[in-house]
Amino acid sequence: xxxxxxxxxxxxGHTLLGWSDPQGHVQLALFMAFIFGIIGGYRAxx
Length: 46
Description:
The chain is mainly alpha-helical. The chain has one domain. Helices cover 80% and strands 0% of the residues. It contains two helices and no strands. α1 runs antiparallel to α2 (25-45). The longest helix has 21 residues, at 25-45. The chain starts with a helix and ends with a helix. The chain crosses the membrane at residues 28-44. Keywords: Membrane, Transmembrane, Transmembrane helix.
């Protein structure tokens, strides 16, 4: 499910949400938020 969300944001985020991201900063921030969320979820559970 997280993979699908990441793929949709990277593929269609600029169209759906209307951001302008020529240098890729928004995509990098979204990717890092997902990664840190996954790591934090595993650490909180275990």
